[in-house]
Design a protein that fits this description.
mainly alpha, about 120 residues, elongated, 5 helices, Four Helix Bundle (Hemerythrin (Met), subunit A)
Length: about 120
């Protein structure tokens, strides 16, 4: 089984929520993550680095709660970037964070099946 799906199952057990509550929680994760990723893309393309860091921090918290460690680490790196960081490092951290979040959202959607909300993209 995929690492992200295993993490989601582990998080459900740790949080001790039933299936209906878990599906609602995952739906909220998917919806808010889609929205925050759209904002992150806008902030990055506009070079609004404070907004990029704030959104990375916000997404990072959700990933930590769900045990999505790869996305957590990628977002943490993006959050730590500052104005003195060379552009290639920013671009790499941004691309890594987007890819990690895409995997996590896809895993959440698979876990939710037909209960999954429509994508904001």
């Amino acid at each position: 089984m995929e690492k992200s799906l295993l993490a989601l199952d582990d998080a459900q057990r740790m949080l001790q929520v039933d299936e209906a509550e878990w599906l609602q929680f995952l739906g909220l994760f998917v919806t808010t993550s889609d929205r925050d990723l759209a904002r992150l893309r806008e902030a990055f393309s506009g070079r609004q680095l404070d907004d990029v860091r704030m959104l990375a921090h916000r997404l990072k918290g959700s990933c930590r709660t769900l045990g999505l460690d790869d996305a957590f680490r990628a977002l943490e790196l993006l959050e730590r970037m500052d104005a003195a960081t060379p552009d290639p490092a920013w671009s790499r951290a941004y691309a890594d964070a987007l890819a990690a979040m895409a995997r996590c959202i896809a895993a959440a959607r698979r876990r939710m099946g037909s209960a999954c909300p429509e994508s904001a993209d």
